[in-house]
Amino acid sequence: MKKGWKTAIIVLIVLVLIGGAVGGYFVWRHQTLYIGGDKALQTALDHAGLTSAQVYDIDTEFEKERSSAWYEVDFETMGTEYEYIIDAASGSILSSSAKPEHAGG
Questions:
Q1: Which helix (H) or strand (E) holds 66?
Q2: pLDDT tens per residue, range 52-92
């Protein structure tokens, strides 16, 4: 019975090490392929002529579909809602909009 426990523990350790290596690879790959959410937000703020201190309700989401990846960046100022789509690889702005907020009715 002791041999069975030793084998099970060794197999478990090997699986944990392999899982950690695979997970680490995908994190490293993501960080080297894409600009990151902070850079995408800064690109949008720079384009809007704003600083992070001037905006609120910031939302940055990474999206990927097949061979395309992008960041959806949304934020607000007093009176305006901004929406950006930033290419995750190049950092270029794919689309942008600024809409006046409407008072609730």
A1: none
A2: 999 999 999 999 998 899 999 999 999 899 999 999 999 99
Highest-confidence range of 7-11, 12-16, 21-25, 43-47, by mean pLDDT? 43-47
- 13-37 in b/e burial notation, b at 16+ Cβ within 10 A? eeeeeeeeeeeeeeeeeeeeebbeb
Q: Kindly report the pTM of this predicted structure.
A: 0.67
Query: CA–CA separation, 53 vs 77, rounded Å?
Result: 10
Length of the chain: 105
Name beta bridge partners: 81. Answer: 76, 99
Helix (H) or strand (E) holding 83: strand 80-87
Task: Match 């934020």 to its residue by tokens.
Answer: 75
Q: Among 87, 80, 72, which residue's Cα sits nearest to residue 33?
A: 87
